[in-house]
Structure formats: C-alpha cells, structure tokens
From TrEMBL:
Gene label: atpC
CDD domains in the record: F1-ATPase_delta (cd12152)
UniProt name for this protein: ATP synthase epsilon chain
Keywords carried by this UniProt record: ATP synthesis, Cell membrane, CF(1), Hydrogen ion transport, Ion transport, Membrane, Transport
Domain ATP synthase F1 complex delta/epsilon subunit N-terminal: 5-84
Matches recorded under NCBIfam families: ATP_synt_epsi (TIGR01216)
PANTHER family named in the record: ATP SYNTHASE DELTA/EPSILON CHAIN, ATP SYNTHASE EPSILON CHAIN, CHLOROPLASTIC
GO terms assigned for molecular function: ATP binding; proton-transporting ATP synthase activity, rotational mechanism
Function: Produces ATP from ADP in the presence of a proton gradient across the membrane.
Assembly notes: F-type ATPases have 2 components, CF(1) - the catalytic core - and CF(0) - the membrane proton channel. CF(1) has five subunits: alpha(3), beta(3), gamma(1), delta(1), epsilon(1). CF(0) has three main subunits: a, b and c.
Amino acid sequence: MVTSFHLEIVSVDEMLHAGAVHFAVLPGEAGALGVLPGHEPLVTRLRAGMIRFQPVEGGEQALFVAGGVLDIERDRVTVLADHAMRDAASDAERAEAARRFADQTVAEQKHRFDYGAAEREFSEDLSRFFALVVAEQRRSGH
C-alpha cells in the first residue's frame, strides 16, 4: 500500500516545498480538498487559504497561499501559487518591504504625473468631440 506522494509547492518567488508527504489539505476553489496517496487526477484553481501537509519526515507544516493552480496526479501534487507565505516572521518583513516599495512608487508617480496637462488635454478632446457632433448634426439637418 502506497503511503505517500510527492508534493511540490512553488510560488512566483521560490520553491517552498518539494518532497514526499502523507497527506495535504488545500483550499480548492469550491472548498477544502483533502489529498491522500492515489487521489484521482484533478486540475483546479486555488483560493486564498492555508495549505497543510504532513511530510514523511514528520511534523505537520502549513503555508498560506493567495490563490493559484492545483494539479493532482496519482503520485504527484503540484501547487503553482500566485503568492505564498511560509512563516509569520518572514512574511511580516516581506509585507513591510512591499508597503515601503508601494509608498515609494506612489510618491515617485505623484511627481511624474502632470494633472494640469491631463486636464487641458481632456478639455481639448472634449471640445473637438462636441465640435464634431455639432458639425454632424448640421450636415444631417437636425
């Protein structure tokens, strides 16, 4: 009797797990999916949630994924996560770094965008549009 299968969890950034496990519980699009060795093949989307799994070496592990794709084969399960977080400490650091990057990007973009020029361009386009509408109405006799 087969008691394990190969589980790979890959995010955009890194390989989070690759190895034999006894079971996995994943956040499927339609609800939680429990996977044991010999599971029927399936491809589905993942929603945001926790993936729990029991490596053959012991010690249940968990990761948070923010969506992705799940591919189940008889002896292999592959998770292609949009984003995944391994542990709270490194995730807090990642979140803070992402917040700083977003703040910096917004600040840089604010200085690059010329709202006055955009408003003038919009006003000119609107004037041309109405001039065309009036000309068309005159031409058609309305």
